[in-house]
Amino acid sequence: MTDAVLTPLEARVLGVLVEKQHTVPDTYPLSLNALVAGCNQKTARQPVIEATESDVLVAVDSLKYKHLVNTVSGSRVARFDHNMGRVLGVPGQSVALLATLMLRGPQTAAELRLNTERLHRFADVSSVEAFLDELSTKEPHRVVKLARAPGEREARWAHLLCGEPVLPAAGAGRTDGFVGMADGTGTDVSAGELAAVKAELARVSSELATLRAELAAFKSALGVD
């Protein structure tokens, strides 16, 4: 099951379990309510989504079949934990990097060092790069270094647990990682995931409209046509 391709929501669920294991250990393993809240939280997520309980349960069931998630017994409320490191055969440092990529989308090594700090504290960027290099060369490949986009100083890394990332066309700009599948199977998504994409497009459109309004006001103040 280590080579199974995950859906975007499965990757989000798995990333949340890894994150919360380190950031809120007193409430880990997570209840379904906590897991849904973690998937839908507005911070440290790219994209922000609105998955329902049923969406998350479907993802959990699939992850259980792939042996990546367990249901913890001995509690009146079902709780879930992950087996990511053991099933994928990677160390804790790599689990932290993969989880952060799943939660936040493609990032540079420097961004990953900053964003993984609560999951694992890397000594320096070269340490991050060493684990990324191992993940990108050891079979099966778990991450890929993306071609540096025009205007970017550093190349970003993306995870491969949802399949090969589809890069935007030249001039299309940075997507920050709701990337879909190279074989065109991106239609196999839940209603929550589709809503997430629409919400992200609406957010970007709103930001663009705001920037245009601010630019127009600035030009007017300067008397520039």
From TrEMBL:
Pfam family name, one: DUF480
Domain of life: Bacteria
Coiled-coil residue windows: 194-221
Residue spans crossing the bilayer: none
InterPro entries: DUF480, WH-like_DNA-bd_sf, WH_DNA-bd_sf
Annotated family: Belongs to the UPF0502 family.
Protein name (database record): YceH family protein
